Structures are given as C-alpha cells and as structure tokens.
Amino acid sequence: MRFRLLLTGVGFVTLAGACNAILGNESEYVLVRAGAPGSEPEAGTTGSASGGKGGTAGSSTSSGGKAAGAGGKATGGTAGRNGSSGKGGAADAGEGGGAGEPAGAGGDAGAPSCVSRGAENCFNGLDDDCNGDVDCADSACNGPAECRSRPSGAELGYFLGSGQTCLSGYTRVDLYQDLTVPMQCKGCSCITPTNLLCDSGVYGHGTYACPSYQFSGQLWDVFNDRCSSLPGDPNVHYYSIRGTSECTPSGTPTFDPTTWGASAVFCLADRTGGGCGAGKVCVPAEVPTWCTLGDGGCSADYTDDRGTWYEGVDDQRECSACQCGLGTADCSASYIGVYSDGGCGTNALPLQSVQDQGDACGLSFGPKSARIIGNPVAGSGSCEPSTFVQGEATPTNGHKACCAP
Fold first, then answer.
1. Residue range of the domain that includes 106
2. 229 and 134: one domain?
3. What is the 3-state secondary structure (H, E, C) of 62-95?
4. Cβ-count burial of 247 within 10 angstroms (0-12 exposed, 13-18 middle, 19+ buried)?
5. Using one digit for the tens of pLDDT, what is the confidence trace for 71-123?
6. CB under 8 Å to 142, separation ≥6 — which residues?
7. What is the pTM of this model?
8. In this structure, what are the phi and psi dihedrals at residue 220, rounded to the nearest 5 degrees?
C-alpha cells in the first residue's frame, strides 16, 4: 500500500513509499491513503492482451483511473505502472491508451529546485535565498551594495586616505609616481700614490714667428727622470711643468637607491557580484569615490584623470670597477733645462718658469736635448677615484588611474 504526505495550508509535497519528514515541521503534514479523498491520483495498470480497458485518470479526489498511455502533465504525479512518468505541468493527467495497447516508456524527472544558502550574499553571483534574484537584483542588497560600471581592462577600487586602512574585502596596492634614478657610483678610493713624475712639453717654432702660438713639427715630451731629444731650434714654445702620480684603486662601488616623488595606496575591490547588467558589477556601497586602475584611458563614467601610477621598479644598474686616474704631484721647485748636445751632458740652460705656456726666442744655441731639473716633493701626490653606472632603472606595472567626478 502506498502513502503520501499532504501539506495543508502551505502547499504539497509528494513522496512515494514510506513517510519521511524533510522540513522539520511534521505537524503540518497529514497521512492519507492513495486513492482516498484528498490524495494524489494513481495511474491504473496496463490493459490485458485480450483487450482490457484502461480507465480514465482520476481527479484530485478520485482513487484511480485508466492506465496511462503517454505520460500526463500532472504536477508532481506518479506515472501509471509501465507508463511514462509525468513531467511538471498542468494538474490533469493525460488520456490513457486504448484496450490492449502497451504502456508508454518512462518519462523524464522534473528539474531540481534551488537549494537555499541562507541570506543573500550580494557579491558572489548566486541566488542564495532562492527568490529568483541574484546579488544587486535582490532587494536584500539595496543599501549595502550598488551597481557600478567597470570599463573593459580596468579594476574598481578607491584611493586610501592618510592614516586609513583598506576596508574588508579590498586588497591593498601600493602605487608610485615620478621615479628618480641616481646615476653615480660611490665607495671607491685611491691609496697612497706611487711613481711621482714631473713632465712638460716643448715645440719648435721653425719658420713661424716667435713668440707666437704657431709651431713646427711634433711635441717633444720632457721628464725629470730621463733625457729627451729636441729639434735643435733656437726658438721654442714650452708648457709649465706639471706633477703626476699613479695610484692603486680600492673599495667596492655602490649606487644610491631609486626614489619616488609621490606614493599612494589603492584599495582594489575583491567583492564584486552580478545582477547589474552588461558592463556593470555589484560592489559595496560604502566607498565615497570609486576609481579605476587600467591599461587604457579614462572612460565616460570615470573622467578625473589621476595620471599613471606604477607598482615597482626594475633596477638593472651596475657600477664599474673602481679606477684611479692619473694623480698629481708637487713639482713647483723644478724647471726645464735645455742642452746643446743630444745627451743632456753639457751645462743646462734653464727656461724661465711660466704660469701655463710661454716662448724662448733667439737662444744662443739650438737645444738638442732637455730634461726637468728637480724631483716631485715626496708624498705630495694624490689621485681621484672614478667609476660609472652601467644599465638603467625603469618603473614597472604602470596603470592609468581614473576616478568618478
């Protein structure tokens, strides 16, 4: 024998077989016998091969009916034995087959109903309370949520005020502008100089006037530690004596870090839902001024251009090895001596000291050699360290920031 549960005053739920309570309110159910008044209709059996007559489907108060040929449209009704199961539809069952006709094949079951998840979550794209409305389309989301346009290729959020933190459901994104990249290295030095030297240079005027800045032939270098040849010209142009030294580099070169001229915090909206239509999303309504971070320009809904902001920097700078250029030495007590022979073996004729450069015209002989008389002052030398930056630093992950006016 079959039983069904009839939910009075609210609706009805049909269950085949044993009686089961599923909603936790058993006092609302009444146990009735199939075919009894108030019960669901039960389909009749198939007619016999000799021509048994199928009965008509019972009404909502009858106890039975003809064997079902094709499945009826009874809402929640059960199909006749060997008949097709009824799909959801009108309340009345379909007509039964003729005498001796075989029953139809089993029909499809109805679509599953919505499973309630409790109160509506406005930002998950689901109909949580099973009222047919999703997120912002549900009246329960009026107030805590609103629909906002989200341009293609952009993300919604807002700029954080000073001393504040991002609200729950938002991700903090640190942004920067105006990158400054130092291109100088530091940390190099030069230890005590060695190889101190005094040197100068001499030209012959040849056929050019003396004094003048016109010379003939090559520049002849003159040093304090050796004898140098001269062209044998009694009219010469020469330079002041300089002191040089060599140094050994020391240290590890480094460069100053990059800096930003401006920084900001953007709170990126993680909670976005549906129910808003094309081009819009459901977002929390507590944000006073919505903005977007995107790869393109500003849109019609976000016209306040806040410029391009970056998330970081790709620093590919490197410092070259430490070097020491040619250093200085004190040769102020030295002078150039020229000689009539080619080996600096005769008495030296001193050339007058000059501030930068000068001439010696009409000498008593054409000097064939020269050297600097005197040595650099011991310990007087010094060198300047040098290094240089290779590579560059560039900002990364740039986004155009646009806000609602």
1. 1-45+53-110
2. no
3. CCCCCEECCCCCCCCCCCCCCCCCCCCCCCCCCC
4. buried
5. 334 333 333 333 333 343 333 433 443 444 444 454 455 555 788 888 999 98
6. none
7. 0.54
8. -100, 120
